Amino acid sequence: MAIIGVEERDPLGPVSIVGGGRLAGETVSHDVIPGADKAAYLLMLIAGFNFFIGMFNFVPLLPLDGGHIAGALYEAVRRGLAKVFRRPDPGYFDVAKLLPVAYVVGVAMLVMGVVLIVGDLVVPVRLAG
Q: Which residues, in sequence order, are CB contacts of 11 under 8 Å at separation 6+?
């Protein structure tokens, strides 16, 4: 209900890149915060976003890199089991069969992104004080 302004947003909850930009702007505009603390906060904000994006990319769902890694690992396990049991090579795994999953995950990520951006525009997370 926070997205429509009925209740306050959780300050420790997720923010989009729009909310992160707003927080960075508020940090720089405060006169009370020393310059070294501002620089450290901005550096940690950028590092946090980059770390999250990098780790999220390893989730084993197909549109992300983790999904391609999972497909390659599945193919390697299949080939390894075929060698152990002296069966012929099963061939390549067709990752294109998982495209419906990729579409669902892509749409879900798009919807979540839009909801977070709208939430950051309607009821932004603000710095305390």
A: 125, 126, 128
**Burial of residue 125, with CB atoms counted within 10 A of its CB: 0-12 exposed, 13-18 middle, 19 or more buried:** buried
The per-residue pLDDT for range 64-94, each reduced to its tens digit, is 999 999 999 999 999 999 999 999 999 888 8
The pLDDT tens digits for 17-50 are 999 999 899 889 988 889 899 999 999 999 999 9
Tokens in use for 64?
């992300």
d(CA 86, CA 14): 50
Query: Among candidates 106, 95, 103, which has minimal Cα distance to 71?
Result: 95
Distance CA(21)–CA(69), nearest Å, equals 32
